[in-house]
Write a structure and sequence with these properties.
Pfam families: Acetyltransf_7 (PF13508). By secondary structure, the protein is of the alpha+beta class. It contains three helices and seven strands. 28% of the residues lie in helices and 32% in strands.
């Protein structure tokens, strides 16, 4: 893709905040208020920038499980979808997670997000037992993937 790059941003970055707000709004529109979940302190954020416009984001956070990170808030603005941006963000967040010392990533998506399910499964994520609050939420799909060095 011409003119795309991925870079780290901090939680107070205005472009990142705009994307996270849009991601939350989309989740609430699909799932109601239960679609909203937070990102823990110490999360590492990445954004995709295409031709000067910030169009996608993803975060990785620690989980409290040794060696395991969690992918959070994978989002690409609707006008930028279908261009491989989510796949590029996922690949880069996996690289960053490995650099942070994670040997495994996990994530959650829902039954109303078939494109996300397809992306994660095609990237090697496999279904895993649900954890935490997801254990009792119908319609959630939990995935995990070992990371290679």
């Amino acid at each position: 893709m011409f003119g795309m790059f991925i870079e780290q941003r901090t939680a107070d970055d205005l472009d990142l905040i705009r994307l996270l707000d849009a991601a939350f709004a989309e989740l609430v529109a699909r799932y109601g208020l239960e679609g909203r979940s937070g990102i823990g302190p110490g999360a590492h954020y990445l954004v995709a920038v295409v031709d000067g416009e910030t169009v996608g984001c993803v975060a990785v956070q620690t989980t409290g499980v040794a060696g395991t990170g969690e992918v959070k808030r994978m989002y690409v603005a609707p006008a930028a979808r279908g261009q491989g941006i989510a796949r590029a963000l996922l690949k880069e967040v996996e690289r960053q997670a490995a650099e942070l010392g994670h040997t495994r990533l996990r994530l959650v998506t829902g039954h109303l997000q078939p494109a996300a399910v397809a992306l994660y499964e095609s990237a090697g994520y496999e279904p895993t037992d649900p954890w935490g609050t997801y254990a009792t939420r119908p319609g959630t799909f939990c995935y995990a993937k070992p990371l290679t060095a």
